[in-house]
Amino acid sequence: MRDSMVSQWTDWLGDRMTAAPTIPRSTIEREFRLLFDVLTEMVGPLRREVNAVWHHVCEHYGRVASARGLAAGEVVEELQFLRELLIRELAPILVAMRARQGMAIMLRLNRVIDKGVAVAVVGYTDALVATLFAQNGVPLSSTKQDVAEVERQLDLLEQELQAVSPPIK
Description:
Low-confidence stretches: none
Radius of gyration: 16 Å
Structural class: mainly alpha
Number of strands: 0
Number of helices: 7
Mean pLDDT: 86
Oligomer: single chain
Largest sheet: none
Number of domains: 1
């Protein structure tokens, strides 16, 4: 289910996925899968344990969005696409539950996404400020090192999630 939802999410984003050559599509899709994995845990019984991981993943998402050349509003919009996708995909499942249980999951999911949006915007802003101070507003000419660093950070975030939650299959 996760992979099909990631595929649908990337399809909705269209040209944004390939507009900036700095971060390859496969890396962005990997980050989307990580967001889904952490989000899944955030509405489950391990939500307190995974809360710090969610914060780190969303902040990283914002930083990567900056490297992709997105505007701050586009970061918010991408996560709103995620919200809409989840509502559409989970609606049949939630309707089958008791009303109180389904509503509680939906409210929790929306709170988690709202928090994720805020943290992603902070990560995005931090990355822009760091660029302005470190490079006088001029991006680096070498992107290979940036991609390798993003991949390394994703490895660390995935390990952080695995440390508090069993892998999702």
